[in-house]
Specification:
The complex is a heterotrimer of chains A (233), B (213) and C (317). Chain A has a domain at 40-181: MetI-like fold. Chain A has nine helices and no strands. Chain A has helices at residues 2-11, 21-63, 68-80, 83-91, 100-124, 128-136, 141-175, 184-192, 196-224. With 213 residues, chain B is mainly α. Chain B has one domain (2-7, 15-212): MetI-like (MetI-like fold, Orthogonal Bundle), CATH 1.10.3720.10. Chain B is built from ten helices and no strands. Chain B has helices spanning 2-8, 11-41, 46-61, 64-75, 79-103, 107-115, 120-150, 163-172, 175-203, 206-212. Chain B is elongated. Chain B starts with a helix and ends with a helix. With 317 residues, chain C is an alpha/beta fold. Chain C has two domains: 34-147 and 255-299 and 307-312, 3-Layer(aba) Sandwich (D-Maltodextrin-Binding Protein, domain 2); 150-244, Osmoprotection protein (prox), domain 2 (D-Maltodextrin-Binding Protein, domain 2, 3-Layer(aba) Sandwich), CATH 3.40.190. Helix content of chain C is 45%, strand content 15%. Chain C has 14 helices and eleven strands. A five-stranded mixed β-sheet of chain C has the order 8-7-9-6-10. In chain C, strands 1-3-2 form a three-stranded mixed β-sheet. In chain C, helix 2 crosses helix 12 (271-281), helix 2 packs across helix 14 and helix 4 packs across helix 5 (120-132). Chain C is globular, with a radius of gyration of 23 Å. Chain C starts with a helix and ends in a 5-residue tail after the last helix. Classes of the chains: A mainly alpha (233), B mainly alpha (213), C alpha/beta (317). The B-C interface holds B 10, 12, 76-78, 155-158, 160, 164-165, 167-168, 170-173, 177 and C 81-83, 107-108, 183-184, 186-188, 209-212, 215, 218.
């Protein structure tokens, strides 16, 4: 016991090593893979739900312009609430299940603004003449929407999806703070346990995931719009 | 509501607010001092500019928490560490916009200016920068709003700021403290957005503004 | 145009496929619930814990002990703060987690009095009673015999220079000292304001706020501050370089760790009490500091540290 204490006293003044590869090897399947899976789950489900909401709302807003300002206002307010705060507030809602749910709700809330804006912008970018021509050919409203407007709006919509996805992957890291799982768990646990290896593993993997998603969706965007120059930020 | 005001009236609150503003402002300034010169340096080389824009695009994807967390093992905890991470986060939007803005200046105008005998630095200061200014500034604005939001996370590496308040409110289950922190950040980011937006409008020559509409 | 139309048609199909694939990852999300492989065919108990080292260790200790006694255990050892853990307990997501008697009174239970009970036993009894009155009721089991309360520590040279042994000594010397603290301590009624109330002479030259547990120690070691506040069971406090100051008036509430279990779960599994009590009884301040130190200072895994300890004590074969 005395020996252990002496050893502890010596070690307490040493800095922990930056990356302990044995820890990574030992805990790969137990801690790291579930974190990656959890993170992908959180991100994809959130993007999917956000898209499912934003597409119809965006299409409606593009048609009936009056609802666009209030929609932008509400989603804008949601966007300006700091993520940490929104997560914390959601936890205190009675009946909320601890875990992925509050994180997904917040992530969806954050991405609505950008997605709806891009759906509207995309539909707006369809030239009026094209729609007239389609009408002239006898297409119904619905057919125009699905066969003309949406396909032409697709590049802009995908650009929005790209930004939303990258944002969501980023903010999902904070979700671990309210026990949402994901790569943020490695980061927070590492900070709490004074264990740089976990922190670096979580941070690097989260960054890699975000960049990967960004590049994949960028590829999709380019495929849909080979002629376009890069858009401004 | 009254209890939220109580929290705002705390002696410690102004320190948190000040630290938050300091972190954001300094990070932004550092980012500008790095990104703009780089963009200027590569403005006339297509490869360089494309590289800068690509780096910027990749940089934009990096999660804020990840970058702040990475600062911890390398730079330790505290204000400086958080500042470095936030500055790194602030660079991409400015770099992208500055590079794009300078590249998009009409080559014809630049040729004409050269033809009139202007030196490279005169072309830069009298033609390229003024024309690119609104775009560059839009990038600075985007970055500013992002930094104010990301600075909330500085609390996790001991950087201080309004995130401290949010974390405290959450840990103690005290909604007033939590909301005081959340609202302060929200208000700060709205002020930043509106403030920079106003400056941006002032910088955009009337002709361009109409064209942009 | 044909490409785009095909793409639009494909989107719902792709999303659906992705959803199916990702549902398999469902079990790995949020709360990192882990099935035990060595558990018996007995009833399943879900154990939670908050997300700092001592909590991970306590959670693992209780979980592994239960497993060795025929229970099937699921672990959700990252439930953030007591707010999250308590919520999970009340809505049945977990069956138990290690709480502290003082914390329960300060942050969870409807304890209205201004003063906290002045003995550890009284603190436990009040907490236990309030927990039992909840809907659904909880049982706070016998606490482990040590106090994990605020620990005020000073760097050794500083303690020697100003002859610091107790809080009273600290108050006297404070105008020349820098204090490294965290926001919750500064603002909680049982924290700094409590110190100031009991020792009005307390008036630090400077107070630095560092919210990360381990980082405050670094600050004091490195000289950014002279005195800091942590928790009495942290591994770092065993260091030769630090002196822990005494609190003869016991101004801080007592934070004895005790498992809090849903009463209905306990009723159905009365065997749990014996197992959990045995684990709690085997701990003390030195031991807890050592275990915490293994995780915080030597980067060992809480699971391994707990397993080793349980074997040493003969609680697990």
């Amino acid at each position: 016991m005395g020996e252990a204490l002496a050893l502890l006293q010596d070690l307490s003044l040493e800095e922990p090593r930056l990356i302990e590869w044995d820890w990574i090897a030992e805990n790969f399947w137990e801690d790291i893979v579930p974190a990656i899976q959890g993170h992908i789950y959180l991100s994809f489900v959130s993007v999917a739900i956000a898209l499912a909401i934003s597409l119809p709302v965006g299409i409606l807003a593009a048609r009936y312009r009056k609802i666009y300002p209030p929609v932008t206002f509400v989603t804008g307010i949601l966007y300006s609430i700091p993520s940490l705060a929104l997560f914390s507030i959601l936890i205190s809602v009675p009946g909320i299940v601890i875990g992925a749910t509050p994180v997904i709700i917040a992530l969806v809330a954050y991405s609505l603004l950008i997605l709806i804006r891009n759906v509207v912008a995309g539909i707006d970018s369809v030239p009026a003449e094209t729609i007239d021509a389609a009408r002239g050919m006898g297409l119904t409203q619905g057919q125009i929407l699905f066969r003309v407007e949406l396909p032409l709006a697709l590049p802009v919509i995908v650009a929005g999806i790209r930004i939303a996805t990258v944002t969501i992957i980023g903010i999902a890291t904070i979700g671990a703070y309210i026990s949402g799982g994901g790569l943020g768990k490695l980061i927070f646990d590492g900070i709490n346990r004074n264990f740089p290896t976990m922190v670096i593993t979580g941070a690097v993997l989260a960054t890699a995931l975000a960049i990967l998603a960004d590049l994949l969706l960028l590829g999709l965007e380019r495929y849909l719009r080979p002629w376009a120059r890069r858009r401004r930020a | 509501m009254g209890s939220i005001l109580e929290v705002l009236g705390r002696p410690g609150f102004s320190q948190l607010l000040l630290t938050h503003v300091e972190l954001s402002a300094l990070a932004l300034i550092i980012a500008i001092l790095i990104a703009v010169p780089v963009a200027i340096a590569v403005r006339n080389t297509p490869i360089g500019a494309t590289l800068a824009i690509n780096v910027g695009n990749i940089g934009r994807a990096v999660p804020s928490l990840a970058l702040l967390a990475l600062a911890l093992p390398f730079f330790g905890f505290g204000f400086t560490s958080a500042l470095l991470a936030l500055a790194a986060l602030a660079i991409p939007p400015i770099l992208i916009n500055a590079s794009t803005g300078l590249r998009e200046v009409d080559p014809g105008v630049i040729d004409a200016a050269r033809g009139m005998g202007l030196s490279e630095s005169q072309v830069l200061s009298r033609i390229q920068l003024p024309i690119a200014a609104p775009v560059i500034f839009a990038g600075i604005r985007t970055s500013a709003v992002q930094v104010v939001a990301s600075a909330t996370l500085a609390t996790f590496i001991g950087g201080g700021g309004l995130g401290d308040l949010i974390v405290e409110g959450f840990q103690r289950g005290d909604t007033a403290i939590l909301l005081a922190g959340a609202l302060s950040v929200a208000v700060l980011s709205i002020i930043t957005e509106l403030g920079f937006g106003g400056i941006e409008r002032a910088l955009t020559p009337k002709g361009l503004r109409i064209a942009q509409k | 145009m044909k490409n785009e139309t095909k793409l639009i048609r494909a989107v719902p199909a792709v999303l659906a496929a992705l959803a199916l694939v990702l549902l398999s990852a469902c079990g790995n999300v949020g709360g990192s619930s882990q099935e035990s492989d060595s558990g018996g065919s007995g009833p399943t108990i879900t154990i939670g814990s908050k997300n700092f080292t001592e909590q991970y260790i306590l959670g693992e200790l209780y979980a592994q002990a239960l497993e060795a006694n025929g229970f099937n255990v699921e672990k959700k050892l990252d439930l953030g703060s007591e707010q999250i853990a308590d919520k999970a307990l009340q809505n049945g997501q977990i069956d138990m987690y290690p709480e502290y008697t003082g914390t329960a009174l300060v942050s969870i239970l409807p304890y209205q009095k201004k003063e906290y009970p002045d003995t550890p036993e009284a603190t436990y009894q009040v907490a236990k009673k309030l927990y039992a009155e909840r809907e659904p009721a909880d049982t706070m089991l016998t606490p482990a015999p040590f106090n994990d309360t605020y620990g005020i520590f000073a760097r050794k040279e500083v303690a020697e220079q100003y002859n610091l042994k107790t809080f009273a000594d600290l108050a006297e010397a404070s105008p020349k000292l820098t204090f490294v603290s965290f926001s919750e301590f500064q603002n909680r009624s049982d924290g700094f304001p409590n110190m100031k109330k009991n020792y009005p002479a307390l008036n630090f030259e400077d107070i630095k706020i560092v919210n990360q547990l381990g980082l405050r120690y670094q600050g004091v070691f490195q000289g950014d501050g002279d005195v800091g506040v942590g928790f009495t069971t942290e591994g770092q406090l065993n260091s030769d370089e630090l002196v822990v100051l005494e609190d003869p008036k016991n101004i801080f509430p007592f934070y004895y760790p005790a498992p809090v279990v849903r009463s209905d779960v306990l009723e159905q599994n009365p065997k749990m009490k014996g197992v959990l009590d045995k684990v709690s009884g085997s701990l003390d301040v030195e031991t807890m500091r050592e275990l915490n130190g293994k995780v915080d200072l030597e980067q060992e895994d809480p699971e391994d540290v707990a397993a080793e300890f349980l074997q040493e004590k003969g609680i697990v074969e």
